[in-house]
C-alpha cells in the first residue's frame, strides 16, 4: 500500500522528534523547518494531515495560525511541551484549529493512531461522492484511483439517458452507484424504484413488474400499478437482473424496445417514460455466449453503458478510510471509551481479502464498535484474529494482474490508443491485447484503431 503523505512542521531548529523513524515506516514525511517552507509545501502538494511542533513564542502564534489555515482540507495534530498548556492563547489555538494534540515526550502508538484518524477524517471531506438529492443510508467513499475513475464515470453517465449495466461482486455498492446516477440526472426529481429480480415470487413477477387490472385474476379486486409504471418520469433499478427468469425476459425486452407496458388483464398499451439501470454480480456476457439463461438481445439492450464496481480488495487505499468513516457513522452505538482502531486491527483489515466487500466491512466495524470494551478496537473485535494471513496468500496473483494491467495501460497511453502500436510494444498480437483489455476492463481515452 502506498504511504500516506504527512507534513511535519518543526520550526525549533532542534533535532528531529524522537521516534520519527518509526513514523517513516508508515508515512511519507515532508519536513518543513520554518513557516514559509511549510506554506510552500501546502500550496504545491496535496496533504491531508500535518504534524506541528508548536512554537513557544507568543509573537509567532498568529503567523502559525495563518499557515495552519491555508491548508483548508488538512487536519492538524499538535506536539507541545506540557507547561505550554497553561497559556490560554495556545489552548484557544488548539481548540479552534487542531484535530488532536500530544504532549512531549509523545506516546508513538497514540500518535500513530491519532494521525491515522486525522488523515481519514480529512480525506472524507473530498473523497465522498456527495448526494445531490435524497441522501441514502451510506455515501460512496474512496480516494483510490479506481474510485476516482468510478466517480468520473457516474457523472458522465448521469448526463445522458441511455440504459446502464452495473457489474460487480456482491457488497460493492451497485445500488449506491445507481442512485448516484439518478440523483445527478435530469430525472432526479422523479422516482427511483428498486426491483430485486432475484427476490420476486416466481408466479407474481408479471403482475409485480407490469401491474394488473381489476378482475384480471382471482383476488384482483382493484387495479394495481406495477413497478415499471411506478417509475414513470424517473429511474427503474433492476438489481440482480441475471436472476430474472428466462420466460420473463422477453416481456422486459418488449418494454425496453417500445417504452410501453401491458398490465395483466389490460387491453391497451400504456406509455412509460423510464430510464433503466440494471445490476448483476454474474458474468452475463458469458451466460449469453454459453446460452445459459440470459437472452442476447436483452443483454445488448441493457449494456449500452457499462459501469464496473471494483471489489474492496482492488482498492486497498480505501480500506482504512472506510473503516474510520463507518466508525464515526456508528458513533451513537459505541461506548464513550472506544477511541478508534489499534494498529493490529488496521493491519488485520489491510491483510483481509474482503470477500463480502464494503458490506462485510460495514458489518465488522459495526459489530466491533458495539462489542469493544477497551479504548482501541482489536482484530478479535473485528472477527479477524484468524484471518491475518489470508491477504498475503493472495498477494502474488493480485500483484501479477496489477503489473500486467499497468503495463497495458502504459503502452496504450504511449501509443495514443493505437492498438497495433501498443501490441508491438508489448510483443503480443492485437487479438491478445484486445482480450486483455476486456479482461481488465480498460477504457480507451481515444477510440482504438480498427474499431
From TrEMBL:
Recorded superkingdom: Bacteria
Entry keyword annotation includes Lipoprotein: no
Domain Sigma-54 factor interaction: 140-370
Keywords, in A-Z order: ATP-binding, DNA-binding, Nucleotide-binding, Transcription, Transcription regulation
Claim: Endoplasmic reticulum is one of the keywords in the record: no
Pfam families listed in its UniProt record: AAA_lid_14, HTH_8, Sigma54_activat, VpsR
PROSITE patterns for the chain: SIGMA54_INTERACT_2, SIGMA54_INTERACT_3, SIGMA54_INTERACT_4
One GO BP annotation of this record: regulation of DNA-templated transcription
A single MF term (Gene Ontology): ATP binding
UniProt name for this protein: Two component sigma-54 specific, transcriptional regulator, Fis family protein
Amino acid at each position: 500500500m502506498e504511504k500516506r503523505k504527512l507534513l511535519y512542521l518543526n520550526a525549533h531548529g532542534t533535532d528531529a522528534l524522537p521516534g520519527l523513524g518509526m513514523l517513516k515506516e508508515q508515512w511519507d514525511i515532508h519536513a518543513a523547518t520554518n513557516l514559509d517552507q511549510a506554506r510552500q509545501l501546502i500550496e504545491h502538494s496535496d496533504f491531508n494531515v500535518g504534524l506541528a511542533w508548536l512554537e513557544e513564542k507568543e509573537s509567532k502564534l498568529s503567523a502559525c495560525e495563518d499557515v495552519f489555515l491555508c491548508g483548508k482540507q488538512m487536519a492538524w495534530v499538535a506536539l507541545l511541551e506540557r507547561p505550554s498548556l497553561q497559556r490560554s492563547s495556545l489552548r484557544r489555538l488548539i481548540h479552534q484549529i487542531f484535530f488532536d494534540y500530544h504532549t512531549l515526550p509523545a506516546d508513538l502508538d497514540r500518535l500513530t493512531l491519532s494521525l491515522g484518524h486525522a488523515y481519514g477524517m480529512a480525506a472524507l471531506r473530498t473523497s465522498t461522492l456527495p448526494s445531490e438529492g435524497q441522501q441514502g443510508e451510506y455515501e460512496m467513499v474512496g480516494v483510490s484511483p479506481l474510485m476516482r475513475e468510478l466517480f468520473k464515470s457516474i457523472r458522465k453517465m448521469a448526463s445522458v439517458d441511455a440504459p446502464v449495466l452495473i457489474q460487480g461482486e456482491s457488497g460493492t455498492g451497485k445500488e449506491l452507484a445507481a442512485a448516484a446516477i439518478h440523483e445527478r440526472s435530469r430525472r432526479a426529481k422523479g422516482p427511483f424504484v428498486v426491483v430485486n429480480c432475484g427476490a420476486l415470487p416466481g408466479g407474481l413477477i408479471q403482475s409485480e413488474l407490469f401491474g394488473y387490472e381489476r378482475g384480471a385474476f382471482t383476488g384482483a379486486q382493484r387495479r394495481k400499478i406495477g413497478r415499471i409504471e411506478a417509475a414513470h418520469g424517473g429511474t427503474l433499478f433492476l438489481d440482480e437482473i441475471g436472476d430474472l427468469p428466462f420466460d420473463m425476459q422477453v416481456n422486459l425486452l418488449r418494454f425496453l424496445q417500445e417504452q410501453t407496458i401491458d398490465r395483466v388483464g389490460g387491453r391497451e398499451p400504456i406509455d412509460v417514460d423510464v430510464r433503466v439501470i440494471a445490476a448483476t454480480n454474474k458474468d452475463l456476457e458469458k451466460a449469453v455466449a454459453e446460452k445459459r439463461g440470459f437472452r442476447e438481445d436483452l443483454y445488448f439492450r441493457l449494456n449500452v453503458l457499462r459501469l464496473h464496481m471494483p471489489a474492496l480488495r482492488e482498492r486497498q487505499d480505501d480500506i482504512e478510510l472506510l473503516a474510520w468513516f463507518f466508525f464515526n457513522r456508528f458513533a451513537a452505538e459505541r461506548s464513550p471509551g472506544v477511541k478508534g482502531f489499534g494498529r493490529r486491527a488496521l493491519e488485520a483489515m489491510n491483510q483481509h481479502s474482503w470477500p463480502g466487500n464494503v458490506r462485510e466491512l460495514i458489518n465488522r466495524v459495526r459489530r466491533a464498535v458495539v462489542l469493544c470494551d477497551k479504548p482501541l478496537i482489536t482484530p478479535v473485535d473485528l472477527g479477524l484474529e484468524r484471518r491475518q494471513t489470508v491477504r498475503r496468500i493472495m498477494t502474488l496473483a493480485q500483484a501479477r494482474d496489477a503489473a500486467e494491467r499497468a503495463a497495458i495501460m502504459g503502452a496504450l497511453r504511449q501509443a495514443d490508443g493505437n492498438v497495433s502500436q501498443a501490441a508491438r510494444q508489448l510483443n503480443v498480437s492485437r487479438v491478445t491485447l484486445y482480450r486483455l483489455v476486456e479482461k481488465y476492463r480498460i477504457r480507451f481515452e481515444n477510440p482504438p484503431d480498427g474499431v
